[in-house]
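Per your request, structure below.
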């Protein structure tokens, strides 16, 4: 009996030591989270051929503009699996030509600014609930809007509140953040996804996500703006809303990658482009509750630990006016991102990419009749697809700070072969903790 008790005690002690060792492997879960970022971008051009200009044109004269923003990302664990986040921020400054004149706009961060003095705003305010489904676990490192801690790989996550739809959809490891990666809007997002948002890129909505080891599924429903590209959201979600569904498929080929397939369906008080073209470009007279449907294909591929490739293809039906995001009905982009380990600068990044966008026939006729969209509208139009190219070098000055030098070329800006091409140069300072 005594030997049995000794054996049981030894086994219990061994199990306790093993459990303690396992607990020590992963850091304890965070209960509070506080991160921040500051970005300053100075961009301009030396002028370009411009025989005429309209209300939404890129100015043909030399111009240089600066903009900045800063954000605090604060989070709190409420209960097991429950989290609360709030992101106060400010924006100040403008993109070139007050962020107008190129559909694939040349500064994806400036489109949220547009203020002469710093403008405070609450960017995000949301609650997240994670339901673990058991089995293998993974560790989520502390990050912006992410409390560090271990979670089940198989899990369901619900998020509700004020968010940005592209926080959950159309992600890409190499091209999704104009603060640290490519600047051009057509390289960091799928241009033809008219994703629901106010003029600063945020909306109210609900997102449900199911994650598994090799795949994930996302579904979201969001409020649309009452008027195209304006701040006020339409609370009548049963009449007007934007929905999206996305499947992520992960693979281990080469150094790993992900393919994402997204479909979207929006309903808002949008105008009909064909009717507006026949009415001299007056889109407001044609606004009714209308549908817009489309899709996005998005791929990222790590070739090595330092070299990654990306590509996007997006499409929408091109019948209704651009409502919340961009003036593109078809878009494609692709490029590469390379870390600087080969030249002894492992934290530096070189990016090189190109893209193109186009619009439907009724959309062309609308712009040719003098209509204006979110970014474009030269008063008249000699149509051609718009093409952009971008190259950047991000120099990691110190652990929290990077300085990026950027060059872009825009051909047929605003789908108009009468104007351009234009070369643009930028410097970007980014600090985060």
């Amino acid at each position: 009996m005594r030997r049995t008790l000794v054996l049981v005690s030894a086994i219990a002690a061994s199990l306790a030591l093993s459990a303690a060792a396992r607990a020590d492997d992963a850091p304890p879960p965070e209960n509070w989270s506080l991160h921040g970022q500051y970005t300053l971008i100075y961009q301009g051009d030396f002028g370009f051929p411009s025989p005429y200009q309209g209300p939404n044109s890129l100015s043909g004269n030399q111009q240089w503009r600066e903009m900045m923003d800063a954000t605090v990302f604060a989070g709190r664990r409420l209960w097991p699996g429950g989290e609360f986040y709030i992101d106060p921020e400010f924006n100040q400054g403008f993109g070139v030509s007050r962020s107008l004149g190129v559909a694939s706009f040349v500064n994806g961060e400036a489109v949220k600014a547009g203020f002469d003095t710093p403008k405070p705003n609450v960017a995000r305010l949301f609650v997240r609930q994670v339901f673990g489904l058991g089995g293998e676990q993974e560790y989520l490192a502390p990050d912006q809007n992410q409390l560090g801690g271990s979670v089940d790989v198989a899990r369901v996550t619900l998020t509700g509140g004020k968010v940005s739809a592209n926080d959950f959809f159309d992600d890409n490891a190499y091209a999704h953040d104009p603060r640290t990666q490519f600047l051009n809007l057509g390289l960091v997002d799928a241009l033809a996804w008219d994703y629901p948002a106010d003029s600063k890129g945020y909306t109210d909505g609900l997102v449900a996500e199911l994650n598994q080891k090799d795949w994930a599924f996302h579904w979201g429903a969001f409020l649309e703006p009452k008027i195209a590209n304006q701040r006020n959201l339409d609370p009548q979600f049963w009449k007007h809303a934007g929905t999206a569904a996305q499947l992520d498929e992960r693979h281990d080929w080469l150094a790993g990658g992900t393919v994402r397939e997204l479909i979207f369906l929006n309903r808002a008080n949008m105008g009909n482009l064909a009717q507006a073209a026949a009415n001299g470009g007056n889109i407001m007279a044609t606004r009714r509750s209308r549908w817009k449907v489309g899709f996005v294909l998005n791929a990222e591929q790590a070739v090595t630990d330092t070299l990654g490739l990306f590509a996007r293809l997006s499409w929408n039906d091109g019948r209704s006016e651009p409502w919340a995001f961009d003036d593109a009905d078809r878009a494609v982009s692709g490029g590469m991102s390379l870390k600087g380990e080969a030249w002894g600068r492992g934290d530096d990044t070189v990016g090189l990419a190109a893209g193109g966008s186009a619009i439907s026939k009724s959309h062309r006729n609308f712009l040719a009749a003098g209509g204006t969209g979110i970014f474009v509208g030269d008063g008249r139009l000699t149509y051609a697809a718009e093409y952009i190219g971008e190259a950047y070098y991000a120099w990691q000055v110190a652990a929290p700070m990077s300085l990026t030098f950027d060059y872009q070329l825009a051909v047929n800006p605003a789908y108009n072969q009468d104007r351009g091409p234009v070369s643009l140069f930028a410097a970007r300072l980014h600090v985060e903790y």
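The radius of gyration is 24 Å.

Regards,
D.
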